[in-house]
Specification:
Elements lengths: L1 H20 L17 E7 L2 E7 L6 E10 L4 E10 L4 E7 L5 E9 L2 E5 L8 E8 L2 E7 L4 E9 L4
Antiparallel strand pairs: 1-2, 1-10, 2-3, 3-4, 4-5, 5-6, 6-7, 7-8, 8-9, 9-10
Length: 158
């Protein structure tokens, strides 16, 4: 009996996570409504350079890359994507070459978007807010920790 109970609990956890990620958003939401996120965003904070680049939406996909580095040579990178599925828009973050973690869209406005995954350790919520044409507020957090950045839109030089 205990084995059946344990298997049931494991099955429920797996199913509930996939249901949480796939919850529906209004049909009128299109990935193109996030085109304001496209561009090269950067800032220097505490001698650390931060860059995030987002390509414009194409079909059902936006691609992004995040990089941080400091004068001592330490760095962090992350590959990002936002995909529109049949039922929702999902943000995927793959830090430092690890597997991608999904965050589902939970809030969208003209210049603001919020994604969440309550089963992830940190962050559980990621938000982008376009404060004006050249300033992007980015917030990541969980119930006990929060980080905030303000990035400036710049010309991308490659």
């Amino acid at each position: 009996m205990q084995k059946i109970y344990l298997i049931s609990v494991i099955f429920y956890c797996l199913i509930s996570q996939s249901i949480t990620i796939a919850q529906e958003v209004p049909e009128s939401i299109e990935l193109d409504s996030l085109s304001w996120l496209s561009g090269y965003w950067t800032d220097i904070q505490d001698k650390k350079s931060i860059e995030e680049i987002w390509l414009a939406p194409r079909d059902s996909l936006m691609l992004g890359m995040h990089r941080e580095y400091n004068a001592s040579g330490r760095f962090f990178y992350e590959f990002l994507r936002i995909e529109q599925t049949e039922k929702n828009i999902i943000y995927y973050a793959a830090p430092a070459g690890r597997s991608a973690t999904p965050f589902r869209l939970v809030e969208i406005a003209e210049n603001r978007v919020v994604f969440e995954n309550k089963t992830h350790d940190f962050p559980q919520e990621i938000s982008y807010t376009l404060e004006n044409d050249s300033t992007l507020l980015v917030q990541v957090g969980s119930s006990d920790k929060s980080i905030e950045w303000r990035w400036i839109k710049a010309q991308f030089i490659y």
